[in-house]
Write a structure and sequence with these properties.
Chain A: Keywords: 2Fe-2S, Iron, Iron-sulfur, Metal-binding, Oxidoreductase. Chain A: It comes from Natrarchaeobius chitinivorans. Chain A: This is (2Fe-2S)-binding protein. Chain A: One of its GO terms (molecular function) is 2 iron, 2 sulfur cluster binding. The complex is a heterodimer of chains A (169) and B (828). Chain A has 2 domains: 76 residues, Ubiquitin-like (UB roll) (Roll); 69 residues, [2Fe-2S]-binding domain (DNA polymerase, domain 1, Orthogonal Bundle). Chain A is built from 5 helices and 5 strands, in the order ββαβββαααα. Chain A has a 5-stranded mixed beta sheet, sandwiched between helices. Chain A is globular, with a radius of gyration of 17 Å. Chain B contains 22 helices and 32 strands. The longest helix of chain B is centred in the last third of the chain and has 28 residues. Chain B is α+β, with helices and mostly antiparallel strands and 828 residues long. In chain B, the strands form 8 sheets. In chain B, strands 3-7-1-14-11-12-13 form a 7-stranded mixed beta sheet, sandwiched between helices. Chain B has a 6-stranded mixed beta sheet with strand order 9-17-16-15-10-32, with helices on both faces. The N and C termini of chain B lie far apart (66 Å). The chains are: A alpha+beta (169), B alpha+beta (828). Chains A and B meet through helix 2, helix 3 and helix 5 of A and helix 2, strand 1, helix 5, strand 8 and helix 10 of B. The structure holds FE2/S2 (inorganic) cluster (2 copies). The site of one FE2/S2 (inorganic) cluster has 12 residues of chain A, from loops.
């Protein structure tokens, strides 16, 4: 952003997109350059999508797009046209009871400041959907794209193992 | 209002425990975070809010010749452009850490103003030159791109040692880059060094690192014309202490600038105490426009020029030692490169005095530093606050001394340890260690390592086999101290007349207490208010569990909120491993007061003397048992009164004040840290000599932080600290080119440890209560970061010992290229 060059930016016309977000269909006209992460935060009000780097390293912005965990800061909202997105807000039951992954993170103290937590919870969900009983090495590989600066990851292993056990029950 | 009540399942176990304190209760903060409901500052966007972006310097050192904002102002979304010229007409410079600097032989004092936008000259890459405001963040960045700045570049200095030569001077008004210096001697180091059998010396570098929380800085400022005052919502750390950096810059009284920090902050580790520039700029813009203005720092701005790097040191350290393995003297000299401006945390260079000899008895010590300025972004605080590099350099020279006298390094350490019968132990630098059995801790970690040698990771057969593959395994145990619960009085030593301190009286010492408030609510539940901000440490949980015990009710009947800077008195806040001790002390006092008030209300109601009533389990009873009032009944009675009795506050005094062993440190403004958490580490490392890569196979640690109020939180703090220590030791660095261009401006360049790089941490705890604190707890927020880099470095040296390299880990981070060049040099 910091530059002393000049260059006029002519905003292209907004484009209409329809995205299914946490089971609900959302239609909006968006600027083509609007990041998916910003679309979810500002247009959909889903602040659980955290933004820590906006260049694809930290994983705080991780959401599931058509079942795959993706970094929502790395794509544009227009690219999600027609897709199904699930964010951390979609995990708890309607009655407010937590998803087993959320419960497990709570019970094992796998979060401190919590800024990485949405991303870890969503990444864990994808991991456990693909592999209901991962080894430590598989957990490591599955969560290697998410950074937590607070917990030192020790309790995150435990959270994932506990969540896996709960979900297998 | 943040939800902080525990869920029923958490707080009401089937059989009620004796006490909630000491239990690993799950945190009340978690639910809102896990569901995505937590509101961090980036999530706050009031109605009618505009967005700010900054134009930043691309040069490390340059004159600003001209700023042309005409094109930016023509942009249809542009609402405002401000430059230093506008600021100077209406506002003040930001307060700096070294306010006035004496120059030349005359000792004339010169101010060193730091404007929130660069004035006439830029001094580091990323320094803000102009601010723009537009309707949204995307548009604001477009507008920022349209501001044209013309620079005349100057030669830059980006190396602390070179800066001391003053060939390039960062601030011409003061004519030197060395803005603070002190040499302090304790005992008689000169004689110790003359008399000792050996003098060993070493040179060690500590690369520029920092906390890099996942959440960047953010602020939403709202100026209210009617009251001529500001609301500044932001994620600054220590908002009741450093709010002066905002209101003084704006030119307003403290009461007119309400600094408010959300209950959830996405990590800080000390770093966010220095984000005031953004708070000031957003507030100014809001005042100019009469609308709320929001700023969200992006990651590149944060890493490149966000005023949040930390310690950047070169050490020359000497140890005097006798043939029999007695450490006789220590002589520490270092340069700390503070970047372009000496900001508030300049006392990071002094904190190591609180643990100057680590866990060893060394009576004669010299301590000297130069604090220098360069063309880099300014330093802030980071977990450990300057102790981490000191412990690293010290442990390196301890190993060097052991080699010199031909003694096993662990045995050498053991011989010099402070022993339990010496507790409380006064350091030469006058701080006092409270309690602990350091030799027993070293013995325990040695036992653990012995087990590893016997069929474990360090089994001789495995070690030999690995070595065939070019992988060198090793470990060197080391001992650690985490100084806790800093006093506040000493922190302005560098802004005081240091000579006058020698004759200062104890009565002049002025400490900040910890403030806590509570009120009884209509339904009989209790709400407490913290006067400090949090960033993941679980303070709401801690206070609710402590208060539940004191009031004999359940944690679920208590919730905990936060006060802003106007409602709270000035106090220190969450830093320097203070909160467990300060909050627990304050909670005990606060609860006593609330119980007294409850009894008073009840006695009044029944019209009996206060002695005839007593408080138990959340009710007040007549002692003859004939009647009782619940907290809800009492709240109802209280509501009828003009002045509410059940709104109470309490100020807990700093615990060192009542112990005269700290008097000398207090008087002379040497660092006062009345708790010493301690332990020993043994990270087992494996170095691939072909690639220079270091893997930590397992991190063994034995730790003691006194009484553990919530062991789950204690362990979490240690895990996180150790992980940050691993990053510091092996990965992280804000490198600079010679011309001042930063090398690490994305998270692809500044490498944070991932789940793949942090090893398994095997932790044991002992509990030796502190005699100085209300609950026996010791400070615990910074361990790991303080000690892990030193321990990893000593282990790397031990692993590579067969190669007879010259101290391969003589620089932090011990990056692969550094190790490879050491190995290559030896091969040649
Ligand atoms: S914000 Fe998307 S990866 Fe960091
Ligand atoms: S909990 Fe703070 S970054 Fe993970």
């Amino acid at each position: 952003m910091s530059t002393d060059s000049t260059g006029e930016y002519d905003a292209p016309e907004p484009r209409e997109i329809t995205v299914t977000v946490n089971g609900e269909s959302v239609t909006a006209a968006v600027e083509p350059r609007l990041k998916l992460s910003d679309f979810l935060r500002t247009e959909c009000g889903l602040n659980g999508v955290r933004v820590g780097c906006e260049h694809g390293v930290c994983g705080a912005c991780t959401v599931q797009q058509d079942g795959r965990a993706v970094k929502s800061c790395l794509s544009y909202a227009v690219q999600a046209d027609g897709a199904e997105i699930e964010t951390v807000e979609g995990l708890a039951d309607d009655d407010g009871s937590l998803h087993p992954i959320q419960e497990a993170f709570h019970e094992t103290h796998a979060l401190q400041c919590g800024f990485c937590t949405s991303g870890f919870v969503v990444a864990t969900k994808e991991l456990l959907e693909e592999n209901p009983d991962p080894t430590r090495e598989e957990i490591e590989r599955g969560l290697a794209d998410n950074i937590c600066r607070c917990t030192g990851y020790q309790n995150i292993y435990e959270a994932v193992e506990r969540a896996a056990a709960k979900m297998r029950e | 209002m943040s939800q902080s009540q525990p869920t029923e399942a958490d707080a009401e176990p089937e059989s009620e425990p004796e006490s909630f304190t000491g239990q690993g209760l799950p945190r009340v903060e978690d639910h809102r975070i896990l569901t995505g409901e937590a509101e961090y500052i980036h999530d706050v966007t009031p109605e009618n809010c505009l967005h700010m972006a900054l134009v930043r310097s691309m040069h490390a050192h340059a004159e600003v010749v001209d700023i042309d904002a005409s094109e930016a102002e023509d942009h249809p979304d542009c609402e405002l452009v401000l430059t230093a010229e506008d600021l100077k007409a209406n506002y003040n410079p930001m307060p700096t850490g070294v306010g006035r600097i004496e120059i030349g032989a005359s000792g004339e004092a010169v101010e060193l103003p730091e404007w929130s936008l660069a004035d006439e000259k830029v001094r580091f890459v990323g320094e803000p030159v102009a601010l723009v405001v537009a309707s949204n963040r995307y548009a604001a960045e477009d507008v920022a791109d349209l501001v044209t700045v013309e620079y005349d570049t100057l030669e830059a200095v980006a190396d602390g040692m070179a800066a001391r030569e003053d060939e390039v001077v960062v601030h011409e008004s003061i004519g030197t880059n060395v803005v603070d210096h002190e040499r302090i001697e304790f005992g008689d180091p000169e004689t110790a060094f003359e008399d000792a059998d050996h003098v060993v010396s070493g040179e060690y570098s500590w690369g520029r690192i920092s906390g890099v929380p996942l959440e960047t800085a953010g602020v939403v400022a709202t100026y209210d014309e009617e009251t001529d005052s500001f609301d500044v919502d932001c994620n600054i750390q220590l908002h009741t202490l450093v709010d002066d950096t905002i209101y003084e810059t704006l030119g307003y009284d403290a009461d007119d600038v309400r600094v408010n920090v959300p209950a959830d902050v996405g990590g800080s580790y000390g770093t966010k105490i220095a984000i005031h520039r953004y708070c000031c700029l957003a507030a100014m813009a809001s005042q100019q426009l009469n609308r709320p203005v929001k700023f969200e720092e992006d990651r590149i701005e944060n890493l490149q020029g966000g005023d949040v790097h930390s310690s950047d040191r070169e050490y020359e350290i000497r140890m005097a030692v006798d043939d029999d393995g007695t450490m006789r003297g220590l002589d520490v000299w270092f340069v700390d490169d503070f970047g372009a401006f000496p900001r508030y945390p300049i006392n990071q260079v002094l904190k190591p005095l609180s643990v100057v000899t680590n866990s060893y008895v060394i009576d004669d010590v010299a301590y000297e530093y130069d604090l220098v300025l360069t063309n880099k972004t300014s330093q802030t605080a980071y977990r450990g606050f300057g102790v981490d590099p000191h412990i690293y350099a010290l442990e390196m020279v301890v190993d060097a001394a052991a080699r010199e006298i031909g003694m096993d390094p662990t045995e050498f350490r053991r011989r010099n340890l402070i022993t339990p019968d010496q507790m409380p132990y006064t350091l030469p630098s006058k701080n006092v260690y409270d309690s602990g059995d350091y030799p027993a801790t070293l013995d325990r970690i040695e036992e653990i390592i012995e087990d590893e040698r016997d069929g474990g990771l360090l089994d001789p057969d495995v070690v030999a086999e690995k070595r065939e593959e070019g992988k060198y395994r090793g470990v060197q145990t080391s001992v650690i101290i985490e100084p806790g619960v800093s006093g506040s009085d000493w922190t302005d030593r560098q802004r005081s007349n240091r000579e006058a301190l020698e004759s200062r009286s104890r009565e002049e010492v002025d400490e900040l207490p910890e403030h806590l408030r509570a009120e009884l609510r209509e339904d009989g539940t209790v709400r407490a208010y913290l006067a400090t901000d949090s960033s993941g440490q679980g303070h709401q949980t801690l206070v609710s569990q402590l208060l539940a015990d004191e009031l004999e009710i359940l944690p679920s009947e208590i919730d905990v909120d936060y006060l802003d800077s106007v409602d709270a008195p000035t106090e220190y806040g969450s830093a320097a491993s203070r909160m467990a001790v300060m909050l627990s002390g304050a909670t005990v006092g606060l609860a006593e007061r609330l119980v007294e008030r409850a009894e008073e209300l009840a006695a009044d109601h029944w019209d009996v003397p206060a002695d005839d009533v007593s408080y138990r389990d959340g009710t007040v009873e007549l002692i003859d048992g004939s009647d009782s009032l619940s907290l809800a009944d009492l709240a109802e009675l209280d509501a009828e009164r003009d002045e509410r009795l059940t709104r109470v506050s309490y100020n807990y005094d700093h615990p060192a004040l009542e112990h005269e062993e700290f008097d000398e440190a207090f008087r002379r403004k040497f660092p006062v840290y009345p708790t010493a958490a301690f332990g020993a580490n043994a990270p087992i490392v494996e170095v691939d000599v072909g690639t220079g890569e270091v893997e930590i196979l397992k991190f063994h640690t034995v730790r003691d932080c006194g009484t553990m109020l919530n062991p789950t939180i204690v362990e979490g703090q240690a895990h996180g600290g150790i992980a940050q220590g691993v990053g510091a030791a092996l990965l992280e660095e804000f490198g600079y080119e010679a011309d001042g261009q930063p090398q690490a401006i994305t998270l692809f360049d500044y490498l944070l440890p991932s789940i793949e790089t942090v090893p398994e941490i095997e932790m044991e705890h002992t509990e030796t209560p502190s005699p100085y604190t209300e609950t026996g707890a010791k400070g615990v927020g910074e361990g790991g970061m303080i000690d892990a880099p030193a321990s990893i470095a000593t282990s790397i040296n031990a692993a590579l010992e067969p190669l007879s390299l010259d101290e391969p880990a003589d620089r932090i981070p011990v990056a692969p290229d550094h190790l490879r060049s050491k190995i290559r040099d030896a091969e040649e």
